[in-house]
Amino acid sequence: MKKKVFVLFPDGVGLRNFAFTDFKQIGENKGFDITYWNNTVFSLKDNLGFKELKIENYQIHPLTPLYSRARKHIELNIYGEKFDDEVYSTYKFPFSYKGLKNIFKVLFIKVLIGLYSSGKGLEFIRKKINNLERKNPKYVYCKNQLEKHKPDLIFCTTQRSTQAISALLVAKDLGIPTVCFVYSWDNVPKAMQVVETDYYCVWSDLMKREILQYYPFINDEQVFVTGTPQFEPHYNTALKQTKKDFFKQYNLDLNKKYICFSGDDETTSPLDQYYLQDLANAVRSLNAKDYNLGIIYRKCPVDFTPRYNAVIEANKDIITVLDPVWRQVGNMWNEVLPMKEDFKMLYNVCEYSEFVTNVCSSTVFDFVAHNKPCIYYNYEQPQLKRGIRDIGQNYKYVHFRSMPSDNAVVFCTNKKDLKDLVKQILDGNLSNVAEGLKWFEIVAGKTPKRASENIWETIDKILD
Fold this sequence. Notes:
The protein is α/β, with parallel strands linked by helices. It folds into 3 domains: 4-60 and 136-227 and 448-463, 3-Layer(aba) Sandwich (Rossmann fold), CATH 3.40.50.2000; 64-132, no CATH class; 235-444, Rossmann fold (3-Layer(aba) Sandwich). Helices cover 39% and strands 14% of the residues. The protein has helices spanning 15-18, 23-29, 44-48, 64-83, 100-116, 119-134, 137-149, 165-173, 205-214, 243-249, 272-287, 309-314, 341-352, 363-368, 418-426, 433-444, 451-463; strands at residues 4-9, 33-38, 52-54, 153-156, 178-181, 199-202, 223-225, 257-262, 293-298, 319-321, 326-328, 336-338, 353-358, 374-377, 410-412. It has a 7-stranded parallel β-sheet, with helices on both faces. A 6-stranded parallel β-sheet has the order 10-9-8-13-14-15. A two-stranded antiparallel ribbon has the order 11-12. β2 (33-38), α3 (44-48) and β3 form a beta-alpha-beta unit. The longest helix is centred in the first third of the chain and has 20 residues, at 64-83. This is UDP-glycosyltransferase. It comes from Yeosuana aromativorans. InterPro entries: TagF_C.
């Protein structure tokens, strides 16, 4: 008899990994009966023909977001004290005091932080969140669904969504094993674990060590190193177009060599448009020396600001905009969902760009998978002023300490050096690919081509 697995999407961030890759096909080939337990507004049945069970009740307890925010701050306070490291305070987002309602919320959260910033206090907050969600109508709603369909296991596609809490609590209370995938390479040190499950799938040995280090209530045998499906499409040569077809589709010039500028969200890089301007200036200067270069600008999918428009318009002879193939289906950032077609675009952008430049993005790994270098901008812009976040803070984060050496990327630490760094890469005199691939293995594990296989083997092992 086939084992019935529910793949839980509490929000849209897991679609890219677990709906648009070969994850489902691999699981079915192994004999699993797969149902997508779908809490998103994106219909997997209508769009992809997948078997799904919709969660129509999006209600969480009104106090859950407040206790969850307090939990994050308390965890970061504990980490800062435990590891004697100021970096953890930089992971805290500033509170909003706009409006009376927000003021009361902030005061409530700060009281919780003040009262419970200890190991025992944190345990109280964790239990309180669970108690709140068990009293939430969504708990009863999900319980009815699970009692009716009786899955053998729940696989949650992200650990960072409060929408998953009540659903996973129901599964636990009914004795159904729960597994959670840790979504992103930086999530563990940032205290972004919202849900608690029986087992965890992580990208690498590094991430497993982090999980055990930051969450002492999790045991070694609960954590499985699987890799992430995020990078699997880069090894799918069926996605590769001919250069001629790709350039024709996106109106690129076959006579030019292109550099990809991968945009960041406004929080990570609030002055990102000026780095695009700097690259355009470097390209224009090199073109005067017969280099014949262009720029592919690929924006951050959840950035809807107009901040790049002036730079793009002023350099439209150089910059070609290739927007990611994502669809906005709601008003929240996690309701901007990737489409399957974006895999093909990204594969060919990586394949036919000379290299990528950005501020601290994981696209370094997308490009080194295609043996292409990456420049990280790491200098201040003159427009930086009080109240604007300096990008240099990003490189102090814990996940960047995983670099095997400073040569894992090409750092540009001075605007004046950018043109020369671009020239050196184009001339074949500078590259981070060898060290970048070592870093990729540290972060994403040793088997990036078979992460989906590893996850299904883990699920099979748990069920056995």
